[in-house]
Amino acid sequence: MISNITYRDVQRFIKSRQEVGLASKTVLVDAKALNTAFALAKRLGHTQHNPVDKALAAKPLKAKSSEKETFSPEQVSTLLNAAEGEWRTVIMLGYFTGARLEDCAKMLWDNVNFDRKIIDFVASKSSVRAVIPMTDQLEAHLDSIASTDDPNPHLCPTLCQKVSGGKTGLSRGFKEIMVKAGIDPQEVQGQGTKMFSKLSFHSLRHSFNSLLANEGIDQETRMKLVGQKSKAINTDYTHLDMPKLEDAMSKLPALKLN
């Protein structure tokens, strides 16, 4: 019976997951899933208590993520020159917006406003809106691939159909471009049993944030640009916000393209 499960049972489950070498982040996700299940069971009257709450209160879990390295603008230029077709668009979006891989691959033309020179989209992971002024390089590239004859709503009609993981997924495709460009993914042992690449597409997001920080852009502005939740975020993005965002984006280093 579910009502017979105690917080010590939950603690033993968590310990068993840790002992098989799973990453702390994975164990935390497992615990959160279990917590959600028990919370639902309690609401439905199947149990009077949630043992996961007590287990986590007695011994909180902390997730320690493996740290990503950043790409230099020179490395991004090398990646772009090694990439072909839609991948050039995805990489440019990653560098000039800090968006995650799937968000870049699934970007819609409706998210591109040439009149206002902005990329306006909702990040899939955080559900936070990001409004990012386009740099001249990104605007020129998107203008070069825009077509009034193609009814497809996606910037990347082929890549938008792929998932992130798997042997033919987006992450593997980007890794192949890195190899072609002569850039080492820097694979190391991760926090759990899996190998971890210090350099991956997500490193473009870190690069975006890091390069802006190095140019003296404040944290609040950077959080708005990368679509992260912040205490003072203004999802309306008034006209007063835009000059500050435009100034920030103007400081992002340009790329050397063939």
How would you portray this structure in words?
By secondary structure, this protein is mostly helical. It folds into 2 domains: about 1-60, no CATH class; about 75-250, Intergrase catalytic core (hpI Integrase, Chain A, Orthogonal Bundle), CATH 1.10.443.10. The protein has 11 helices and 5 strands. The strands form 2 sheets. It has a 3-stranded antiparallel sheet with strand order 1-2-3.
Summarize the structure.
Helix 1 crosses helix 3.
Distance from first to last alpha carbon: 66 Å
Mean pLDDT: 86
Here the CATH topology of the largest domain equals hpI Integrase, Chain A
Q: Could you spell the SSE succession in H and E letters?
A: HHHHHHEEEHHEEHHH
Largest sheet, spatial ordering of strands: 1-2-3
Q: β content, as a range?
A: 5-15%
**Share of residues in helices:** 40-55%
CATH architecture of the largest domain: Orthogonal Bundle
Count of beta strands: 5
Tell me the number of structural domains.
2
Instruction: Identify the CATH class of the largest domain.
Output: Mainly Alpha
Largest sheet: 3 strands, antiparallel
Task: Enumerate how many helices there are, as a single number.
Answer: 11
Low-confidence stretches: 230-239
SSE class: mainly alpha
| CA gyration radius, whole angstroms | 22 Å
